[in-house]
Amino acid sequence: MTRIFEDTATAFALKSDAELERAYFLFKLISNEPLVKIGTGLTNFAIKARLPVEGLIRTTVFDHFCGGVSEQDCMPVVEKMWGKRVSTVLDYSVEGKETEDPLDDALAKTLEMLDFVKRKDAIPFAVFKPTGYGRFALFQKVSEGKTLTSPEKSEWERVVDRFDQTCKKAFDLGVSLLIDAEESWMQDAADDLVEQMMRKYNQEHAIVFNTLQMYRWDRMEYLERLYETAQKEGFKLGIKVVRGAYLEKENERAEDKGYKSPICSSKQETDENFDRAVVFCLDHLETISVFAGTHNELSSHKLMEQMQQREIPANDPRIWFGQLYGMSDHISFNMAKEGYNVAKYLPFGPVRDVMPYLIRRAEENTSVAGQTNRELELLKKERKRRKL
């Protein structure tokens, strides 16, 4: 199969020379781990101390990794990407709060987003995080099978109702809904809830999508079990497959508490797990729709090859590829040019509220050196091409 990811003219077609230089500067910074630690520490301090740093953040890291502060603010980016056949998943990236009002606010925001998404062909999915709808500690207690107090039972009923309101609205509008995965020690409760929603709203086709983090060694078995349930009970599965976002936290907690880490023992094992899950979804396309969220070139090529071997059209609506905005443009835009369904996750929200997300992006890029080096290599190549 032709390797399509070296075409930097296509990858960076939407970037002006100034934006290309900013991207190069940012990834150079991110490649320096001590600098990232100092920078994130100073940024956290500045935000907490209410120092006037929003303008600086907005013009550098925020504008590179985010679409804007509101849905409307994101539309110029959405429309530019849509012009290159790349869709958008608008992601309101304000981290979950622990009190009821922000949880209801998150529900209202997601319901509002569903109406907004319905009107935009360029935005085929909506998304939310389970802990946007309920306290982390409550999800953890339900996951551990502990008895809830009477107030906690009422609180959990409100969490279930928020899930149901959102999934019902997505179903009524015919908009697909991606539900993110989080830490393993709260995920069982979220999985059970999403399964309930699939059973209810995925009768005809996949509206509700659960997210499987394949750096967990138990997720393949979970997928197979979920498929058997769907077959028996007659509903469709929406599965978003990713590698995972909480590796260090998962390993540290397992070590602290003395249990076996839920994380695969090596990067290779994670990669194999991811690819196996994607192939399993392709094997059962009559039941499963798959959203492959990956920045890995090899996994992207493997999925394209599998589709070609099975004579599945590039634009089959049951198969999507996804990457984060500000990263892996060489995958997103080159695949879209070849006719594949591609969507960029486009975070947005008030600058201060989105900072935890941006700090996590910087830390993740630092910990995956190969990813950052690859971004730099391609940015250098495009700078050189433009100079010539």
Task: Explain what you see.
With 388 residues, this protein is α/β, with parallel strands linked by helices. It contains 16 helices and 8 strands. It has helices at 8-11, 17-30, 33-48, 54-65, 71-82, 100-118, 136-143, 150-173, 184-201, 219-233, 247-257, 267-283, 297-309, 329-337, 351-367, 369-387; strands at residues 87-92, 125-128, 176-179, 208-213, 237-242, 288-293, 319-324, 342-348. The chain has an 8-stranded parallel β-sheet. The chain is globular, with a radius of gyration of 20 Å.
What would a concise description of this structure say?
The chain has helices spanning 8-11, 17-30, 33-48, 54-65, 71-82, 100-118, 136-143, 150-173, 184-201, 219-233, 247-257, 267-283, 297-309, 329-337, 351-367, 369-387, and strands spanning 87-92, 125-128, 176-179, 208-213, 237-242, 288-293, 319-324, 342-348. With 388 residues, it is α/β, with parallel strands linked by helices.
